[in-house]
Amino acid sequence: MSMASKSMLNAQALARSRLSYRCYNHLSKIHVGLGSTPYSTKNSKVTASHQAHSLLSPCKLLSQQKATARKFSQRSLGQDNLLDVSVDSSSGVATLKMQKPPVNSFSLEFLTSLCINLDKLHSDGCRGLVIGSSLPKIFSAGLEITEMYQPDEARLREFWRTLQEFWIKLYGSQMITIAAITGHSPAGGCLVSMCCDHRVMADGKLTIGLNETLLGIVAPRWFSDTLINTVGHREAERALQLGKLYSPQEAVAVGLVDQVVPLESVAATVESTMAQWLKIPSHARHLSKLQLRQPTLDRLLHTRQEDIDNFVSFITKESIQKSLGMYLAALKQRSKAK
Amino acid sequence: MSMASKSMLNAQALARSRLSYRCYNHLSKIHVGLGSTPYSTKNSKVTASHQAHSLLSPCKLLSQQKATARKFSQRSLGQDNLLDVSVDSSSGVATLKMQKPPVNSFSLEFLTSLCINLDKLHSDGCRGLVIGSSLPKIFSAGLEITEMYQPDEARLREFWRTLQEFWIKLYGSQMITIAAITGHSPAGGCLVSMCCDHRVMADGKLTIGLNETLLGIVAPRWFSDTLINTVGHREAERALQLGKLYSPQEAVAVGLVDQVVPLESVAATVESTMAQWLKIPSHARHLSKLQLRQPTLDRLLHTRQEDIDNFVSFITKESIQKSLGMYLAALKQRSKAK
Amino acid sequence: MSMASKSMLNAQALARSRLSYRCYNHLSKIHVGLGSTPYSTKNSKVTASHQAHSLLSPCKLLSQQKATARKFSQRSLGQDNLLDVSVDSSSGVATLKMQKPPVNSFSLEFLTSLCINLDKLHSDGCRGLVIGSSLPKIFSAGLEITEMYQPDEARLREFWRTLQEFWIKLYGSQMITIAAITGHSPAGGCLVSMCCDHRVMADGKLTIGLNETLLGIVAPRWFSDTLINTVGHREAERALQLGKLYSPQEAVAVGLVDQVVPLESVAATVESTMAQWLKIPSHARHLSKLQLRQPTLDRLLHTRQEDIDNFVSFITKESIQKSLGMYLAALKQRSKAK
């Protein structure tokens, strides 16, 4: 990314940071109001860029009302094909596949696209959501390290706020959410998996876990809360301190994933599990989910700005920057060696 | 139940709602004061109606003092043989068997009788309590649906308050409490089991679990708190969202029950477990129990009225009433088909 | 202990109670400032009494400034060889072996020595700490009963405050802490084990658990919090109510210990586990640990005085004193019989 485009993006990010949440809601409502759902044909494939285009009209409406909103809509248009989203209109189940090579890492743009798509699927009335990956052997490597290395502070803040936003939307989602973990799922990839209601992992030489500690950084409180809710306090202590990456068999043993099946059976297993969950009355199911997850969601919702401040202050420390730099250098070395 | 008797009962319930708790305490104290414990012979069988009669004298005293109290005592007298209570005076262990056909469902009257008996056994100095069922294949089906369908609001509020009362008394009981689960134990039946200190379940085609979601309703926060305390957060999430009914083997695997034995061994297993628990110094044991359960109890104690309001507001929603109506119709259809 | 020496000790304890914490910190800082670490040679053995001597200079400095501080330093000098501490300077791993016959019970002096040593090892920059026992078949029997029987209240309060202090230091320790449980580990012995990051227990006829209930006393809230964090709520309920002592195999099954190995393999297992943990970036590891343990630590830190008051009020009750007396008599009887 050129310096020019980067700073432009930061300017947009700054403008956005104050209205992003409300803006999302407007987009959703307007879109529903227009009734022009792009998810109308059975198993139709719609990529993120197509969606961005499909958002054009309502966003244009918005942009005529507010300059700030225009900036947001422009940015949506600038997205690459980061996601492959399809909806089975007969069942109301969406499949969202991450396709951001090489490792589906969460950049600000990718997180924004994920947030927009979650809102859109929800407002389109989808009842279920399968989150998977189009890339072989990788689910998601988690946060994009370059977002955190020598960062522009405004963008860094927006990056973290959008990550919070994504977690809030996914962890409390009204949809039935199932993770189809067909590849490695460290750090943020593990977080996304844990946010789902059910996790199916492919067997083989894959790993999953919150391994932030190995990079010298610390997963925020809401990452560890999510982990505690999934595997319990004791296992979370061990996992976080060691930055442990679990094999599929280890993961299922401690409850980090719910099922481990051969790679070729993941899709069918996810489908049959989803079919079972779809039989449950939706509203009561979602209220039950919130009853258990809302206290954890509230803990972040009540300290969101503080959490951003903490993250920025921690990650910009010289020592942390140094270890991120070394890690990036090692990554480059490794890819050169290949 | 005729319209007349129903509205009379509601009037009594209204009068009761303001003094029920204090009244329970008075009854207990007076009874102890008179020293006429009906649990004086070894393994003497005393049914709830006998107890009601045995409560006559102290209640009459009370009723001469207060008109409202009289209404309460009258109602106690009107109870059917809902419970079969016996006490082994040598060990101080009471056995309370629910015998309210067809499914030991918790009506307002049944819950009131349970509360009175818990208080009585406690004030009589019982050290242990086994909760079981006299009905074959059923422990308890939980809340009486008709209490929640097209309800009189005053009675509905009293119903919920009495359910809270029962949970508070049982979950924090000074007695060693063991559930002898010899039959199905869905919803409120599962709650009662979880309130005990130990759960023995008969093997076979039985189920146990909080399945409220399947009816389109949501178990209140204190139900889910009790479940989390029993099986942990992750299993509680799955159980509540799916309204999962566990087989005995599944239940013991996740810790929802402690032991699964053949039906004919349940009584002996309960007895030997009770014998083991009776060896522990009572006061320290109860304080240890409260140390772990009091925070959960407090959460309801601090929000009791709010919890009633929430329940009433939720259950009287048109959509919820509709699904309760459909469920009741399906139950009738099923019993006609037999 | 003679009456005279006991009351003198109490006077010291009183003086100390108001400044002990600050004093510890001063000692640490001064010691570091002097740079005279006694843990400088590889695998050098330093006993607690040597350490006490090694603390002479800085304490003398302090004692010249404050009379109260002098009393503290005098007392340090009076310690027996309660601990066997060695440090492997190449790895930065300390080994602290309790050697207070007959059962490594926690008296005020022993707890004070443990606190001082934890501070010292931490300020000397140790990265890992193995806690074990020099006594065969016993890890630690926990609190010294005589501290609680017919106590001098001032000393009792200091005793409890020092126990709190020890728990706070160990549970949140910056060091990697591993318990080498080569002998029985009831009550406070179990607490110390649970405070560590990892627990290796010898197989055989040993037991571990919080068995306070069996003595008619109740483990304080922070004991049970630590237990809940280790084995979960349900198992903690059963364990505390029953005062359950687990065999090594039972303990590993519920997660109370992490590994059970033959006695002769404990040291090697601890060493290889420590080597694995030492690879993790220290700062991030410790922050991860605090993220999970700080809420539990805070609960005591915010109610420390109240917790002391509760303990003193409970333990000095006539009924509790009576059962402690009977327990002590039984212990004497047993040792006479041998």
TrEMBL record, chains A, B, C:
GO terms for biological process: fatty acid beta-oxidation. It catalyses: (3Z)-decenoyl-CoA = (2E)-decenoyl-CoA; (2E)-tetradecenoyl-CoA = (3Z)-tetradecenoyl-CoA; (3Z)-dodecenoyl-CoA = (2E)-dodecenoyl-CoA; (3Z)-octenoyl-CoA = (2E)-octenoyl-CoA. Keywords: Acetylation, Fatty acid metabolism, Isomerase, Lipid metabolism, Mitochondrion, Transit peptide. GO terms for molecular function: delta(3)-delta(2)-enoyl-CoA isomerase activity. The keyword Cell membrane does not apply. Key enzyme of fatty acid beta-oxidation. Able to isomerize both 3-cis (3Z) and 3-trans (3E) double bonds into the 2-trans (2E) form in a range of enoyl-CoA species, with a preference for (3Z)-enoyl-CoAs over (3E)-enoyl-CoAs. The catalytic efficiency of this enzyme is not affected by the fatty acyl chain length. Homotrimer. This is Enoyl-CoA delta isomerase 1, mitochondrial. It comes from Bugula neritina (Brown bryozoan).
